[in-house]
Design goal:
two-stranded antiparallel ribbon; 3 domains; elongated; mainly alpha; 2 strands
Length: 217
């Protein structure tokens, strides 16, 4: 027997009268804030009757006999699970899109490092009575900061799409002052890329000098 063949609690039960099942259907669809009195009064209003401040005895008996509360709660749980599944699928699609964008950003940053971005113009030049199609490639202005910013954005998107933390505390050992890449100069970024550490040009002998000064006093 498949799940579709199983009679769910919110379906009409064996022996349940049609008129009371229709009333249960309305009660069920009122949502988690439903009340028996509110459901009964809706029917009274439709019949041009005044609202009552008490639940009719027949309604109370039918709700108890056919277990309305438990069946309605089962319906609520079913709807909540279905909505969660739908949102889970949407989140998966969003993560896939974020991952694709991250890969494109990485590809663009790689292109920037391999070959400078350029703008191309085509023009016709008359030479010796002939028209020649001339293509001019003009490198665009960009710095290492631009590539670093792209990589940083790609990293955040990639980590977000793969469920990893985006607030990274791991810092490259060469960035001892923990400054973000976009604040570094082109020369510093190039040095990092080559595995050099130019964060302290000329060396840092402050501690050594202070030690010598103290010993000479």
């Amino acid at each position: 027997m498949s799940d579709n063949d199983v009679k769910q609690p919110w379906m009409q039960q064996d022996g349940e009268p049609n008129n009371w099942f229709r009333r249960f259907e309305r009660y069920k669809l009122l949502g988690p804030t439903r009340s028996l009195l509110g459901c009964a009064n809706r029917e009274r209003v439709e019949k041009s009757l005044k609202k009552s401040d008490q639940v009719p005895g027949s309604w109370r008996n039918a709700a108890k006999k056919w277990n309305w509360d438990a069946r309605a709660e089962a319906w609520d749980a079913f709807i909540a699970a279905r909505e969660e599944a739908e949102w889970d699928e949407k989140r998966k699609q969003l993560r896939a899109q974020e991952w694709d964008v991250a890969q494109k950003l990485i590809e663009k940053a790689t292109q920037m490092l391999v070959y400078p971005l350029a703008k191309t113009s085509r023009e016709e030049v008359a030479e010796g009575g002939k028209v020649i199609h001339q293509t001019t490639v003009m490198p665009s202005r960009w710095g290492m900061r631009d590539a670093a910013a792209l990589v940083e954005a790609a990293s955040k998107l990639g980590r977000l799409s793969s469920g990893q933390a985006t607030d990274k505390h791991e810092v490259d050992a060469t960035l001892k002052d923990k400054r973000e890449a976009r604040y570094l100069s082109d020369e510093q970024l190039e040095a990092i890329a080559l595995g050099k550490d130019e964060s302290n040009d000329g060396g840092d002998n402050t501690d050594e000098e202070e030690s010598e000064s103290a010993s000479g006093e």
